[in-house]
Amino acid sequence: MNKTMETKFVIDAAGTPKKVILDYDDYVKIAEQLNLSLVPTSTVKERNPLDWYSLTESANSILNGLMALASREGMLESEKLNPDQQRITELDALRKDAIEQINTNDNFLSLEKMEAIIDKYSPILLAEKKKLRISTSPL
């Protein structure tokens, strides 16, 4: 039986081929003919189609939470008789950083970027929330 090799080309915006997608069996035949190792240099895990939605929502929620927390706590700190200016500055910088991240459209173009946002800002949000519990809990 004469089987033809099915290939797909991934091209950039200019139409220049950048990658070739082919069946694994065809890859094995080519690798054997060229005496190449079949050990992959990297592997890509197939993603769940809902990953995009859940990561977008998680990243947005974390960044919105940081903006709200920093704004609220900054305002509350500034209303004190002796406000901690360093804390106000810290909260303002955190708020501005969260706003910048949420307004940067490139952050939401790939799953990896959204995962990086979650990995970076989730611990910060959690740490800020813990500071509030410690400072507002009764003695």
Provide structural commentary.
This protein has 4 helices and 2 strands, in the order E-E-H-H-H-H. Helix content is 60%, strand content 8%. By secondary structure, it is mainly α. It has a two-stranded antiparallel sheet with strand order 1-2. The model has no long low-confidence stretch (mean pLDDT 86). 9% of the residues are buried.
Main sheet: strands, sense, barrel: 2 strands, antiparallel
CA radius of gyration is: 25 Å
Strands, total number? 2
Strand fraction band? 5-15%
Proportion of residues in helical segments = 55-70%
Strand order of the largest sheet: 1-2
Q: Number of helix segments? A: 4
Name the poorly predicted regions. Answer: none
Large-scale geometry: elongated
Secondary-structure element order, N to C: EEHHHH
Q: Kindly report the average pLDDT value.
A: 86
Distance between the termini: 82 Å
Structural class: mainly alpha
What multimeric state do the chains show?
single chain
Topology:
Elements: E1 7-11, E2 17-22, H1 24-33, H2 51-78, H3 85-103, H4 111-136
Helix pairs in contact: 2-3, 2-4
What's a concise summary of this model?
This protein is mainly alpha-helical and 139 residues long. Helices cover 60% and strands 8% of the residues.
Features:
single chain; 139 residues; mainly alpha; 60% helix; elongated
